[in-house]
Amino acid sequence: MVMQKAAKQMGGSLRKPNVMVCTPCGATSVERRAIHDAVKQSGAKSVHLIEEPVAAAIGADLPVSEPIASVIVDIGGGTTEVGIISFGGVVSANTVKVAGDRMDEDIVQYVRKHYNVLIGERTAENIKKEIGYALIPHKSESMEIRGRDIMTGLPKTVTLTSTEIQETLKESLLSILECIRATLENCPAELSGDIVDQGVVISGGGALLKGMQQWLSEEISVPVHTAPQPLESVAIGTGRSLVMLNKIEKISR
Asked: Helices 100-115 and 162-185: crossing angle, nearest 10°?
């Protein structure tokens, strides 16, 4: 289906294309083989797999092939992927199944529990974007949202504050922080200096949460930067990797 859409946009047909597929860094060999076989059966000439942190790092313009440590934190929808990449290889990587979708679900459950109002995932995401904050001091903001009253079944409007949404997101944010710390603790000592100098780059939709960059920098005591195009970093990196097949094959082994 994806290849058909790509062919349509290109105005022609893709005959036996080379395909690069992004996979979670925690994917097992069985899962990798299943992805490989599925894409192969879809008509690909050759299938190459790239781990998500590597793709995100390439998409964020990090020097993944150079002998210095690059740290990428990709806070996507379903998972947060943290990777330390040096000299074309993954030095240390961790995955936690806490990311944007979990934060949205936290907000849905909070509004249901405290206000007896049902809201959808789209509304929860809008709340997160508008008044969601990482764990930093900030001037409280408010937002009116509409949902369905659980008791009466009728539409109801409630006002939420950024302070309560911040508290709602706390558990998920701390899980992401713990994943980052665990990855950095596994970094070889000789690369620690690079991390202090180069810092950490965050990408994915979670990178756009207000105060995320400041909060992480304070917690891990190294500079934190946001990728140039955080929402598209993984997709851009996966596309760029097609012209770096030799290097990517070494990374994927």
From this structure: 150
What Rg, from alpha-carbon coordinates, does the chain have? 20
How many Cα atoms sit within 13 Å of 28 on the Cβ side? 3
Are 70 and 198 in contact by the 8 Å Cβ rule? The answer is yes
- pLDDT by 10-residue block (mean), the chain, 253 residues: 60 71 84 90 85 91 89 94 87 93 97 96 96 96 96 96 97 97 90 90 96 97 95 90 62 47
- Name the residue type at position 210: K
Q: At residue 153, what is the residue type?
A: G
Q: CA-CA-CA-CA torsion for 129, 135, 139, 143, nearest 10 degrees?
A: 30
Which tokens in the block code for residue 144?
A: 């009116």
Task: Please provide residue 183's backbone torsions phi and psi, each rounded to the nearest 5 degrees.
Answer: -70, -45
Q: How far apart are CA 215 and CA 73, in angstroms?
A: 14
207 Cβ contact list (under 8 Å, min separation 6): 73, 75, 213, 226, 227, 230
Q: Pairing relation of β-strands 18-23 and 46-51?
A: parallel
CB 59 within 8 A of CB 207: no
Total-model pTM: 0.86
Q: Is 209 exposed, middle or buried (0-12, 13-18, 19+ CB in 10 A)?
A: buried
Cβ atoms < 10 Å from Cβ of 43: 14
12 neighbors 40 (Cβ within 8 angstroms): no
Spell out the alpha helix ranges (H) of 51-149. Answer: 52-59, 100-115, 121-131
